[in-house]
Amino acid sequence: MAYLAVVLLEYTLLQQLFVGFAKYNADHFKLPGLTSAWLMLQAALATLLVPLAGARMKGWPVRRLFGAYSGGLLCVSLGFVGFGLFPPGAPLPALAFLLVATVLGEMFSVPASGALAVRVSAARRHGTTFGLTDAIRALGRTVGASGGGVLLNYTLSNLPLFWIVGGAAMALAIGLTGGAVWLLTGRAPDRSRVREASSS
Q1: Which of 1, 9, 44, 153 has the most neighbouring CB atoms within 10 Å?
Q2: Tens of pLDDT, residues 41-61
């Protein structure tokens, strides 16, 4: 349940922030065409680097995986805060900063998230765990998109505030929840190791 709670926070808050990305680039930086270029570059770098990072996490215990997952999300959220601090005359440094923060964050969070979905549940419940995880992600996207739209309404006169407030809220939520769960996972059994011991 703790893992699913962090997944819900992740997708709710990330979706909320991404709602205003194209508008921000168009209105704040006056460069609407950069949005699609940035998204393509970010996806390409993540596709190349995330599997490499995942290979390094092979055999990590649950607690270390959860630390990587929460730390990666924290990196992304702080990246959004920094993105909102760049002035209108610095679009390329702002987008480069966000690119580094999001790719680095995904290198830690994406592989760890998949491994955690397997490691925190017994083998007979993997189908349920994956199904619930996808359902929670869909709920987070729905709630986050709606919440992001409402927040955008109130920050249109000061667009950087949208990113600073949204990113700080995500950093606080992920930091507190992820930190609490990380402490709890120190006492939680690694179910994959339990299965290995019982099958040997």
Answers
A1: 9
A2: 999 999 999 999 999 998 888
